[in-house]
Amino acid sequence: MDWLSRLLDIVPVSGRLEVRCLYAAPWRLVMAQSSPGEIPYHLVVEGSAMLEDPAGGPPKRLRTGDMLLLPHGRAHTLHDGSGAPPVPAHPHVIMNLIIDQNKGTGDSLDMLCGRFILTPPHDRLLSDYLPDDLVVRSGGHSTEAGGQLAALIALMRTEATHESLGGHAMLNALSAAMFALALRVASESKTVPTGLLSVVSQPRLAPALTAMLQEPGHAWTLPELARLCHMSRATFVRHFQQSMGRSATDLLMDIRLTLAADELRRSSASVSVVAEAAGYQSDAAFQRAFKQRMGVTPARWRREGLTAE
């Protein structure tokens, strides 16, 4: 598999399209902090919106064809940018979707809002390596992936407009596909933020990421990963840290522990067998690393999973 297919194989993502916002300025949309494992998204089908910076910096403008993802699920506010008091919006339910609409008289906005859903511990592997907010732009279709995203947006708009049989299932399936496509487009951008997407956008570092995802149980060493990238150990460590914001060792540990946590809950294999498959030769080292990352021992993690089921 390519790196993204393998990542989404390790970290299953489902999608939910929930609200279609049909606003006219002035309008304002305030979203609270999301629940753990949820990544809210907003898809600007037509019009524009401003994303406020909670730190007080300049807002980000979203245009037609742009998609906003908030991997950490933080509270956020979108508005038309006019500064005028918003005209209240009122929701009404149609088949398969909620329409939130106001009676403003200014510039119009058509925006699809939903969320991507991940289950623990998979959510941490993605959220820890993606930025607080990620704007993916398909406008201009400068790449093949951008054109694909624009086509998918058009298809979702059609499904959201027509109350068709199976529309709910279609919208959710398209949402899940959109997550993979958004990461593909973002990884090809010239302004990739620090993190996972920054590493894969650099051809010299991508082989190391692919290797860790494909064979996480292998006893990778930094010199070995550096050789895959045709770098010295010191150069590889420096470039990986600068691009990812974390070390290659941290990423490898998170991949291994995500797979191990999943295996503990879906199989009856002993902790020792799971530890070895995850690349740990020592049970004690696995126990320490697992508790550090997950907050509980492997045995308790398994018991809590059985209790939940």
Percentage beta strand? 15-25%
Residues in helices, as a percent range = 40-55%
Distance between the termini: 31 Å
Question: Can you identify the CATH class of the largest domain?
Answer: Mainly Beta
> What is the CATH topology classification name of the largest domain?
Jelly Rolls
Q: How many structural domains?
A: 2
- Report the strand count: 11
Quick one: overall form?
Answer: globular
Mean pLDDT: 90
Give a short account of the largest sheet.
7 strands, mixed
State the order of secondary-structure elements, H for helix, E for strand.
HEEEEEEEEEEHEHHHHHHHHHH
CATH architecture identity of the largest domain: Sandwich
Question: What would you say this structure looks like, in words?
Answer:
By secondary structure, the protein is α+β, with helices and mostly antiparallel strands. The chain has two domains: 3-192, Sandwich (Jelly Rolls); 202-308, Orthogonal Bundle (Arc Repressor Mutant, subunit A). It has helices spanning 3-10, 122-127, 144-161, 167-187, 196-200, 206-214, 222-228, 233-244, 248-266, 271-277, 283-294, 298-308; strands spanning 14-24, 28-31, 38-46, 48-51, 60-63, 66-69, 76-79, 89-94, 97-102, 108-117, 134-137.
Keywords:
309 residues, alpha+beta, Jelly Rolls, Arc Repressor Mutant, subunit A, 2 domains, 7-stranded mixed β-sheet, 4-stranded antiparallel β-sheet, 12 helices, 44% helix, 21% strand, globular
Can you lay out the helices and strands and say which pair or pack?
Elements: H1 3-10, E1 14-24, E2 28-31, E3 38-46, E4 48-51, E5 60-63, E6 66-69, E7 76-79, E8 89-94, E9 97-102, E10 108-117, H2 122-127, E11 134-137, H3 144-161, H4 167-187, H5 196-200, H6 206-214, H7 222-228, H8 233-244, H9 248-266, H10 271-277, H11 283-294, H12 298-308
Parallel strand pairs: 1-9
Antiparallel strand pairs: 1-10, 2-7, 3-6, 3-10, 4-5, 4-7, 6-11, 8-9
